[in-house]
Request: fold
Amino acid sequence: MRRYDDPVEVRKGWVTGVEGPEQFLWRGRLWKVRAVLAHWVETGPWWQSSGVRAVLGSDEAGSDDEGEQPPGPRPLADLLTEREMWRVEAGQGADTAADGGGVFDLSFDWGDGRWQLVGCAD
Reply:
């Protein structure tokens, strides 16, 4: 699967009995979702937070600038960062084989309300 970090516009609806991405616009092309293959939620990298580094005594916990104090730990912010992931089969026509359809990984970031295409296997 090729990795991307491209913004997409998504229209939600019902696909194969699941409410999720129904269509998405990627690089000026409209893709119609034929099936939702998987759906999961990923949390942010809480293990890299300043609070965890401070507890572990990591060298990375401090600031590199002299006289500047590092910001205080944000224990809940690191745990609340989530993105919703959708693996979908999509194409541009009625026949997947004829239109070069593929499998796409779409993510929705709850923090900023944006959709991204993060992976594609075609």
